[in-house]
Write a structure and sequence with these properties.
It is a single chain. About 35% of the residues lie in helices and about 25% in strands. The longest helix has about 50 residues. The protein is built from 18 helices and 24 strands. Helix 1 packs across helix 4, helix 10 packs across helix 11 and helix 13 runs antiparallel to helix 14. The strands form five sheets. Strands 13, 14, 15, 16, 17, 18, 19, 20 and 21 form a nine-stranded mixed beta sheet that branches. The chain is of the alpha+beta class. The protein is elongated. Strand 16 and strand 17 form a beta hairpin.
């Protein structure tokens, strides 16, 4: 499995822009392996935390070709076998066999390498090992060196020559300017006294230097103890940015190649300052003039500086892109919140049009609007509305109100009323989502629902009927703050045409207009507690178009509907799969108060605003109904009606004598 992964990794690496670098690493497999460390050094520039492996190869005395693999992670030798097998086949067109000879894990804890694997490489053909110039060209050597030691030290300022015991024999001028102890001819200085080995992470000895000759070496020049700050070994040529001392973190790093000279049994370290950016040069007190003209570090610094600038711009662009994405996501969240909030106030279709900047309401302001709902029109105040843009041929409208709400409100605090209405309306609102009806508005204890608007449907009467039964049953779960008994509501329904639209520019509201709204309101005001009072039109729709539901009704007979005359109405009892469940009736607070007043021979007359039960009627003297919903007997004589009401234990109030429909 690991061998397959190593083979795939090489192909992936080559496919993603590193193919030219791979093909130019070496003329043959041996030099390819020996230069793998330089490839890892390049990759480490952008990944400082990477701990790269190290590769070297040599011929043993037995003539076997051995690969030495050092790594900080154990168990990856199979991965190396798969990768090198693929390299030999695809780059050098040769077949090789790799065999793990032994694995050494005896490393000190501070070492970055934790495993050393020796791998035997067997070639099917040795042609891949005979591609270097040394195999074909024999160079010409002069009889003696034509460069003096003085010239060599001056013109190659960054070099160190040392023996197998690491005693320094010669060093370049730039190295001596940093390590002043090297300026004395007779001084005996070991390399370990003036330098620390940074890379590769092995013991600083000639044995390991020979083993890692194919790796690039990085040394940190130490500060001499006897030097003072003004002539510190860490000052470059005694000058710098203000001539300041350089800390260990900013001390000079030199990077280069270790060469073992077999004829003299000495090591030559050819190096140059390891600086990657101009900022790093300033930190280390290095100038361009300190670098030889032939040193490619000059060009690399300039190219890298341009690269860093491009990376910084790209990073800045990425940050801006991420910030824009974040802001876009936040904007989308806010738009969703706005849409959700607006959809709770207006129909989804209308809310979407408003969010798109479209004008929803259309029409002219007018005063001559026949049969307008009292919820939206005030004739006495001379108000004006916008005529709606959409007409609905048929829909079903529901009104409900709380029985004895006026008496409850007069005997408890406003906060109790708010809590009671909130608990009740929350249950009603949940039911609207289940029954697919639209909540138009609530004013005081009045709750208005419509089916078939704004989304047209043939099942509007059925949906509103289900909503009505849910509301009756939900009211039983909310207690009156006065009596602590379940609330009772009256529900009225009517079916017919209507016109709907958004009214106003500030705080726009989706309103319904037409006589259907008025009749539905009358059904509620003439209703009975805990009963669903429906008009003959709704009765016909439920029995004919929803015949499969098996709706059940109780006929109420003909009653006098204000503004409509006699009308045969019905009470909805349920359908084949559901029977209306309501709380038992309890005497109203008004009736109990009226009975107490009648027993003492007093008749209470209240002048002022009409009670909630009569708020939809014109302002003739308004009487509170008894619990059966039967209004007092009609009479042209207000006094006669007053006496009749008192005789039946009722209290009544006289509304202001203005012919107007009052807003809720």
């Amino acid at each position: 499995m690991y061998e397959m992964f190593g083979s795939h990794f090489f192909k992936y690496f080559k496919k993603h822009g590193y193919d030219k670098m791979i093909y130019t690493l070496g003329q043959d497999l041996k030099k390819f392996i020996q230069n793998l460390d330089s490839l890892h050094d390049y990759l480490q520039i952008d990944n400082k935390s990477m701990v790269p492996p190290s590769f070297s190869c040599n011929y043993e005395d037995s003539g076997e070709f051995i690969l030495h693999y050092y790594s900080a992670r154990a168990g990856l030798e199979s991965w190396i076998k798969g990768m090198l097998t693929t390299v030999a086949k695809e780059i050098f067109s040769t077949e090789i066999q790799l065999k793990v000879m032994d694995i050494d894990t005896d490393f000190p804890p501070e070492s970055r390498y934790q495993t050393h694997v020796r791998i035997l490489i067997s070639f099917a053909s040795h042609s891949s090992l005979a591609a270097s110039l040394d195999d074909f060209v024999q160079p010409c050597y002069p009889s003696k060196s034509l460069i003096t030691v003085k010239s060599f030290v001056r013109y190659f300022p960054y070099h160190i020559i040392f023996d197998s015991l690491l005693f320094i024999k010669q060093s370049g001028a730039a190295i001596q300017s940093v390590c002043q102890t090297l300026r004395f001819k007779d001084s005996v200085v070991k390399l370990t006294e003036v330098c620390e080995l940074v890379n590769p992470p092995v013991n600083f000895s000639s044995h390991y230097i020979k083993r890692f000759l194919n790796s690039s070496f990085t040394l940190r020049l130490k500060r001499s103890i006897e030097d003072d700050c003004t002539e510190s070994s860490l000052l470059i040529k005694g000058k710098g940015w203000g001539g300041r001392c350089v800390s260990r973190e900013s001390s000079l790093l030199i990077n280069g190649q270790m060469i073992f000279m077999e004829d003299t049994n000495l090591f030559l370290f050819v190096c140059s300052p390891r600086v990657m950016t101009l900022s790093e040069m300033m930190e280390k007190n290095i100038f361009m003039s300190d670098l030889p003209l032939y040193d490619v570090t000059r060009e690399l610094l300039q190219v890298n500086q341009q690269r860093l600038a491009e990376i910084e711009i790209s990073k800045h662009m990425d940050e801006m892109t991420n910030e824009m994405k974040k802001m876009t996501a936040e904007l989308e969240d806010e738009k969703k919140k706005t849409h959700t909030l607006l959809s709770q106030m207006l129909p989804s279709k209308v809310a979407k049009q408003l969010l798109e900047g479209k004008r929803v309401a259309a029409g002219e302001r007018t005063r001559d609007i026949p049969s307008v709902s009292p919820f939206c029109w005030t004739a006495a105040s001379g108000g004006a509305i916008l005529t709606s843009a959409e007409k609905y041929e048929i829909c079903t409208i529901l009104f409900s109100d709380i029985v004895t709400f006026t008496d409850i409100a007069s005997q408890c605090t406003p906060m109790n009323i708010v809590d009671m209405l909130n608990n009740l309306y929350s249950l009603f609102d949940k039911a609207t989502e289940v029954n697919k009806v639209y909540k138009v508005e609530t004013i005081g204890d009045a709750y208005m629902v419509v089916g078939g608007v704004p989304e047209r449907t043939d099942q509007h009467a059925h949906f509103v009927s289900e909503q009505a039964m849910d509301m009756i049953e939900a009211s039983c779960r909310v207690a009156s703050p006065v009596t602590n008994l379940p609330l009772q509501i009256r529900v009225g329904m009517h079916t017919g045409p209507t016109v709907a639209g958004v009214v106003g520019d500030k705080m726009p509201r989706f309103c319904l207009f037409g006589d259907t709204v008025n009749v539905a309101s009358r059904m509620e005001s003439h209703g009975v507690p805990s009963r669903i009072h429906v008009s003959p039109t709704t009765y016909k729709v439920l029995t004919e178009k929803c015949a499969d539901k098996g709706y059940k009704f109780e006929g109420r007979g003909e009653i006098n509907i204000k503004g409509k005359g006699l009308m045969s109405t019905y009470f909805l009892l349920g359908h084949a799969k559901r029977t209306l469940k309501a709380a038992p009736r309890t005497p109203s607070l008004a009736k109990r108060s009226a009975s107490a007043a009648a027993s003492s021979g007093a008749v209470k007359v209240a002048n002022g605003a009409a009670p909630s039960e009569g708020r939809h009627r014109l302002s003739d003297p308004v009487f509170e109904k008894d619990e059966t919903g039967t209004p007092p007997p009609e009479s042209a004589d207000p006094g006669h009606r007053q006496q009749a009401g008192a005789a039946n234990g009722l209290q009544f109030r006289k509304a202001p004598q203005t012919a107007t429909c009052r807003l809720l």
